[in-house]
Amino acid sequence: MALTKQVWWGGPVDWAAPPQFSDSNLEGRTDMQAPTQAPVQSQTARSYNTTVAGRCIGSSGSHHWVMDYAPHQEGPGEMPGPTEYFLSGVSSCGVLMIQREAGHRGIALESIDVHIEAFRHTDGVDRRHNTFARVTMDFKLVGPNDAEAKDLIAHYQKNCPLYGSVAEATGDIDVTFTIRPRS
User: What is the pTM (predicted TM-score) of this model?
Assistant: First the structure.
């Protein structure tokens, strides 16, 4: 089992001492306040170019994957692009988190399938950041009843940082779900 390095914004945690916060912990972060919870998990990834224009390699730890821009973005378009990988991260967080939470709650979950679709702004309007104009997610769950499905999805919406980041940037995500009894 690998351990995740736990850090405060200001550096490694000294577990023997209570956390200390000062303005230097948040230097350059005018939009944030000092954390009020336990340490933040840190995940890392990197990407680097290849000899093929419009293609890069993404990696995290010892895992690597190829990403392409689409032909209209001057890439080969043979592999999924950064947006598809990002959206897959948002939906896979839903699958994994709901599966785990169902187990913790003793809810029978035979299967879960999450589809996500995002629509980008392409109008050239001057924005501080280009964001998705609209995002839809559809959850298909086999096993839980209606109330259980709603609670599991609400748990995901509250706790997945990828979902939260997209919801904050987009304004909201249109979420639907269907349930089927176990077979």
Answer: 0.75
